[in-house]
Amino acid sequence: MDMKKLEIYDLLRYFHNAKKPDGTLFPILGEDALALTASLSYLLEDTNFCIKAYSGTGKTVLMEAIGQLLPEDWIHTIEHMSETAVWYDMDTINKARFVAIPEAQKIPEGVMEVIKTWADGRTATRKRTDVTSTTSPTKIHFLKPKFVLMAVAVENDKGSAMFDAELERRCMIMHTNPTVSQTERVIQHKLMQVAAPPTKLSSMSNKEIENLKIHLAKAIRERDADDATVMKNPCAPFLMEAIPSAFPVSRSKVQYLLRLINAIARFYPDEIVRTEKDGVTYGMVSPKHNWLGLRIYLNSFVEECLHMPSHGTDILKLFPETRMDRFGFADSDTVKMSEGELKKAAKAAGLPFTKLRPVISGLLMTGFLEVEDDGKRKLYFKSPLITEPAAKIDWSKLIDETKNFIRENWPEVSNEYIRSSCSNIKIVDPFSGDNLELGERTKRAVDVEYGDYDHIFKSAHDASIAKKYTYEGFLLKASGDYDDKEYEAIKLYIEKA
Q1: Is there a domain that residue 220 lies in?
Q2: Are strands 172-175 and 75-77 parallel, antiparallel or unpaired?
Q3: N or C: which end of the chain has fewer CB within 10 A?
Q4: What is the mean pLDDT of residues 181-194?
């Protein structure tokens, strides 16, 4: 059957049209980067993935949506959190390809030890004595290694502290969005859901969703095959500018960026240039796949490398710029703010101001904030010694360097790779659906539609939606991330049209 080429953007469309197991439409809104990173890394590149979230911010719904992309018998959900429950489900777990744990903060120590064993790629075992047996009184139970998708509620002490350093390094971690604007977006959809016809709420057909599931299942089977393609990324040596090296944790976290890029390449199997050496088939990851990986994951990757707590960068932005003296240290005019002042600023910015203290503690621990006590209150200020990263890739330079690298190291496929992967690179933006082009002489991908839409919109896709729907319809279907002022401008635009 001839199907249109699927894009990462189609995977995002699926999450915007996600349904609960009972068929109720429950779209994943405002979590685009998280939804794409989690589904691609976990499903296509066997990555342990943890979603850290405040209760009520949609982590369980997101996990259900990822699980529904798979055949039912491919995934097992651990919901009974007793020490022995996983062993009672041993046969089912061993048959499953994936394991999900929606409330990981409830995990008892015995189950956590199983997960740690899996994280090392080892089989978990236990010995049980059967007093009724005379021939073999001791039985060995085993749970084959699995890659786990977990969600952790972080507002309680156990949820915040459940991961030790070793397990943290073995998991790709991202956070849900608990901001006021995100809450308003979810509420708006629920209000529309009880008012509008179902056809007005959905923008992806059941047939399209089924084709996406078939596509992903095929990619997973190909990855699991004995002769599976081993991915090689000729662009990887030239990604250094995007990787913060202030903390040693970057050494282990960089693997997750590279795995996501590999997963993206597996999503586009027809684009992979392959070659065989010593009986092994190698696939060459392209500049396009690297661009998509950084587009989706770079911000979260940088925050993880810097041990940045959830919404830490948002809190840092509440401080006016710290002034430096000529020696590079904070001078007497350094802006200092009390916890009360930070709460007011966070509230005004639409951040979860009632849960500010753990974020401040995390920023102090990692060195982004410092504190002094004036005798009456604690005053916080941005550290002059640690700066927020600004990572940019010069893509024309990366393409040139990649060409030289592949000529030297993979000469047998260099001509094919350069011809198919390094010239006039066409990209569909994973968040907007816009058609982009990454040229050999351009530093960044450019919109091939040349931005011929009103500047208040983030993409041509969103501009076209504004022409077709009411403001409420725009809120449901737009893919761009807008602030309150931008939404107000769009509302006026639609009302005048």
Answers
A1: no
A2: unpaired
A3: N
A4: 65
Asked whether residue 121 falls in the same domain as residue 177, the answer is yes
Predicted TM-score (pTM) of the model is 0.78
pLDDT: is 439 or 238 the higher one? 238
Radius of gyration, CA atoms only, the chain: 24
* 408 belongs to a structural domain: yes
The answer to whether residue 452 is domain-embedded is no
Of 293, 296, 368, 382, give the one whose Cα is nearest residue 337: 382
Q: Which run of H or E residues covers position 282? A: strand 280-284
Can you give the pLDDT at residue 339?
Answer: 87
pLDDT value for 199: 61
186 and 109 part of one domain: yes
> Quick one: 165 and 263 in the same domain?
no
Q: How confident is the model at residue 110 (pLDDT cuts 50, 70, 90)?
A: confident
Q: Mean pLDDT across the stretch 161-185?
A: 68
Q: Which residues of 4-32 are buried (b: 16+ CB within 10 A; e: fewer)?
A: eebbbbbbbbbbbbbbeeeeeebbbbbbb
Q: Could you tell me if 414 and 344 lie in one domain?
A: no
Q: In what order do the strands lie in the sheet with 369-373?
A: 337-338, 378-382, 369-373
Based on the fold, state whether residues 229 and 201 are members of the same structural domain: no
What stretch of H or E contains 50?
Answer: strand 49-53
d(CA 484, CA 98): 40
Q: What span, in angstroms and rounded, lies between the C-alpha atoms of 188 and 284?
A: 44
Amino acid at 469: Y
**Burial call 441-452: b when 16+ CB within 10 Å, e when fewer:** eeeebebeeeee
Q: State the DSSP code for 183.
A: H
Residue 153 near residue 54 (C-beta atoms within 8 A): yes
**Given 155, 176, 208, which residue is the final one in a domain?**
208
